[in-house]
Amino acid sequence: MAEKPGSSEVTPEEHYLRRRAFIKNAALFAGTALGVGGALVALSGGKRAEEVAVEGAEVSENALQHNTSPYRVDEPSTSYADITSYNNFYEFGTSKSDPAANAHTLNPRPWRIRIDGEVDVPQTVDVDMLIDEIPLEERIYRMRCVEAWSMVIPWLGFPLHKLLERAKPTDRAKYVAFSTLLDPEQMPGQRRRTLQWPYIEALRLDEAMHPLTQMAVGLYGKRLPNQNAAPIRLVVPWKYGFKGIKYIVSIRLTSEEPRTSWNLAAPGEYGFYANVNPEVDHPRWTQATERRIGDFTRRPTLPFNGYEDEVADLYSGMDLRRYF
Ligand SMILES: Nc1nc2c(c(=O)[nH]1)N[C@H]1C(S)=C(S)[C@@H](COP(=O)(O)O)O[C@H]1N2
Ligand SMILES: [Mo]
């Protein structure tokens, strides 16, 4: 248990789980005179959340223990302030500042997700239970919005396949559809007809099972703030940001390709696949370049958002202009 902070080796799962259990107990006593702050520093491993690293400080209930992962782009991360104030979450309005201003009405805990459809073990899972049971990893991914702006975001989460494997997809399962909660009380934008509510997104099963596809529960070492979709959202780094559905309550496996919100709203503009592709322009703007939030000049957009080596095989033989 005497690991030094900053050691980023992958921790064997059993050791990791025991360590998490210890930290949980220790956290119960944080703020008392027991002086566990120092012990937490030594035990936190991987990247230390700032809240945990300060000797004697209170352990923020928002801090999440996690490992680092090899998936980290070699570019500076966008600031926490930008990631949490420049958002798309149409359930709160269409302006970038609406979610940060209004998403305090969300009620992300407790939170359950229903997994059903073409699975042998349909189930309802509690997000806090998942956070306890599945080791979290930090992954620093590029995120490219279809509107041609981008960020680099240090997400905390776990690969989606770990969740899907629990439900045991049947042989007929070919797609995975995700749904956001429908509740205009919490999300007043759902009273307006900007999209057909609830927001629905979907992936092919092989895309959903790909190791890069992540369920995110945190950001910069802490639980997701409401505007970034507390308590849980999807992150598919080689696709346009709209595939990364927020505030998920349902995951359904299907044999037919599901209809998705943006594709229903404007099929000529937003395809089912939505792979980042600098060669296929949006009908109203170029996708060849993008504006990284915080930068002054535009930069070229990379095929599959820079994840071509990992994912191009998923689409071999497909005409990516037709299946955009
Ligand atoms: N439910 C829901 N999910 C959503 C959206 C939305 O409006 N509603 N916007 C999408 C779009 S277009 C983008 S770019 C990302 C933005 O995520 P962020 O605000 O956390 O950066 O969320 C995606 N997920
Ligand atoms: Mo987006």
How do the helices and strands line up, and which of them pair or pack?
Layout: H1 13-29, H2 37-44, H3 50-53, E1 67-72, H4 80-83, H5 98-102, E2 112-117, E3 123-126, H6 127-133, E4 137-144, E5 149-159, H7 160-167, E6 175-180, E7 200-204, H8 205-209, E8 214-219, E9 222-223, E10 233-235, E11 248-254, H9 261-265, E12 289-292, E13 299-300, H10 308-311
Parallel strand pairs: 1-4, 2-11, 5-12
Antiparallel strand pairs: 2-3, 4-5, 5-8, 6-7, 6-11, 8-9, 8-10, 12-13
The protein binds the ligand Nc1nc2c(c(=O)[nH]1)N[C@H]1C(S)=C(S)[C@@H](COP(=O)(O)O)O[C@H]1N2 and molybdenum atom.
Protein model, in words:
With 324 residues, the protein is α+β, with helices and mostly antiparallel strands. It has one domain (7-312): Sulfite Oxidase, Chain A, domain 2, CATH 3.90.420.10. The chain has ten helices and 13 strands. The longest helix is centred in the N-terminal third of the chain and has 17 residues, at 13-29. The chain is globular. It binds ligand MTE and molybdenum atom. Ligand MTE is lined by residues 87-91, 145, 180, 199, 228, 241-242, 244-247.
Terminal CA distance reads: 49 Å
Would you identify the CATH H-level superfamily?
Answer: Oxidoreductase, molybdopterin-binding domain
**Fraction in helix:** 10-25%
CATH class: Alpha Beta
Give a count of the beta strands, DSSP E runs of length 2 or more: 13
